[in-house]
Amino acid sequence: MSDPKKLFIKTYGCQMNVYDSERMAEALSGNGYVQTQSAEDADMILLNTCHIREKAAEKIYSELGRFKALHDAKPDLKIGVAGCVAQAEGEEIMRRQPMVDLVVGPQSYHRLPAMEQAVARGEKALDTDFPEEDKFEKLKARPKVARGPTAFLTVQEGCDKFCAFCVVPYTRGAEVSRPADRILQEARDLVAAGVREITLLGQNVNAYHGAEGGLADLIWQLDKIEGLSRIRFTTSHPNDMDQALIDAHATCGKLMPYLHLPVQSGSDRILKAMNRKHTAAQYVDLIARIRSVRPDLLLSGDFIVGFPGETDQDFEDTMELVRTVNYGQAYSFKYSTRPGTPAAEKAQIDDGLATERLHRLQALLTTQQRAAQQSMVGREVSVLFEKVGRLEGQLIGKSEYLHAVHAVAPRGDIGQIRKVRIVESVTNSLGGELVA
Ligand code: SAH
Ligand code: SF4
Ligand code: F3S
User: Fold this and answer.
1) What is the pLDDT of residues 348-374, one digit of tens each?
2) Which of 50, 203, 261, 336 to mutate to test the pocket of ligand 2 (most atoms within 8 A of CB)?
3) Burial class of residue 316, CB neighbours in 10 A (0-12, 13-18, 19+)
4) Residue 166: CB within 6 Å of ligand 1?
5) Better-scored residue on pLDDT, 140 or 415
6) Which helix (H) or strand (E) element contains residue 16?
7) Residue 57 CB partners (closer than 8 Å, separation 6+)
8) pTM over 0.90
9) Does residue 154 have a cis peptide bond before it, meaning omega lies within 30 degrees of 0?
10) Which of 18, 117, 142, 407 is deepest in the core (most CB within 10 A)?
11) Residue nearest to atom 10 of ligand 1 (CA)
């Protein structure tokens, strides 16, 4: 038998891309590929890309430029581009960078094995369809190999919301939910492979409708899987947070007290221009309802500053909303014009002003995040240990609130949930001691 060919995948963007990269590697394993961690070793390089902000897309072209030398040294090296840039740019990628052999969109990567064969024959392969068939049904079953304690599981894809700034509805297509029985089977297989915590993924995961009672119903079905200890989900839209899902945060013991619920802006005028279809007050009220059933829930959010037309007052409204809500964790971005989206047509605000606002918002969010971490000191949390830490004898894992926690613990505790008393808060993690 010939030596296996080596595949190097580099993943950008959201967790859904992380999941897709795993599935793409699995799909190509049937063509004789094994994964390598080094581009220099690879027979095929696959970039799984993100198009969400301008810088993300530009990064791909400069990354491809860097692979040019590798390609010159090894003319048989195959180069592929997958993910959201592949979907948005399509053939343009091969025009700008002729050494690219393969371009595959996020909805058609089940066709990768056939595309790879074409590429092996020296052809170019391009597929950016939104096919009728369900790619998950067409992909071969996931291999039953031992896995780490945490895993992602995509349950919903695409988006019908069309926020005025966002490319996702164009790169990922319409909202589709996977059938519950398939998800449950995949979850059981993951648990059999050693997984203790599953994060359900979707661009709008709480719009999931593959089970009669939506995402809450799916969570309750997953709750019954023996050996599965923790369930998380991301990313949610405020308008799809139904009462059953809110209640699950109070009553489902496996559902972790962490919620990523992006609001983007605290100004009603801007929310309307963004087509978010809710007001700031409705969001604040929703948070109050969630916290009333689960007071310790750690809340995370996304913000965009400098959306076209954003005035000083609009920005102050965002700052005010942040002060009111008090986030444990958050991501904030400067608005980035995306070609083809409605907001791209509008006059942009001054870049320096947007940068200044971003810094002010980030300072506030960082203060809140530090305070949330600091408030954990002295408390006991449950940590699912995932791997060894940087210091001798240390393990690292996540608390139920998704804080990274390091503590001295036996190696055998990897994959176990242990009680840990938090003793210190450092920049991006918490230090703790095992509770005997
Ligand atoms: N589906 C999720 C988020 C998807 S994109 C939701 O509805 O909230 C992740 C985050 O990227 C968004 O929440 C938003 O804050 C940010 N983002 C999306 N498009 C952007 C753009 N054009 N410029 C800057 N940030 C953007
Ligand atoms: Fe983008 Fe809005 Fe859809 Fe989120 S809900 S993916 S921000 S269009
Ligand atoms: Fe990026 Fe596509 Fe995810 S644009 S954020 S990789 S859905």
Assistant:
1) 999 999 999 999 999 999 999 999 999
2) 203
3) middle
4) yes
5) 415
6) helix 15-29
7) 49, 50, 51, 85, 88, 89
8) yes
9) no
10) 407
11) 302
Ligand 3 centroid to Cα of residue 106, in Å, is 10
> In CATH, what number is assigned to the domain containing residue 413?
2.40.50.140
Pocket of ligand 3 (CB under 6 A): 13-14, 16-17, 50-52, 83-84, 167-168, 171-172, 203
Confidence of residue 55 (pLDDT cuts 50, 70, 90): confident
- Centre of ligand 3 from the C-alpha of residue 171, in Å: 8
The tens digit of pLDDT for each residue in 13-22 reads: 999 999 999 9
- Looking at the fold, whether 111 and 162 belong to one and the same domain comes out as no
pLDDT in tens, 69-104: 999 999 999 999 999 999 999 999 999 999 999 999
Q: What is the pLDDT of residue 1?
A: 54
- DSSP letter at 321 equals H
Q: Is residue 268 part of a domain?
A: no
By C-alpha distance, which of 116, 96, 108 is closest to 46?
A: 116
Q: Is the same domain home to 331 and 404?
A: no
Q: How many domains, in total, are found in the chain?
A: 4
- Ligand nearest to the CA of residue 163, numbered in listed order: 2
The answer to whether position 275 is within a domain reads: no
Residues 348 and 398 in one domain: no
- From 84, 103, 127, the end of a domain falls on 127
198/183 same-domain check:
yes
Q: Judge if 210 and 182 occupy the same domain.
A: yes
φ, ψ dihedrals at 323, nearest 5°: -65, -40
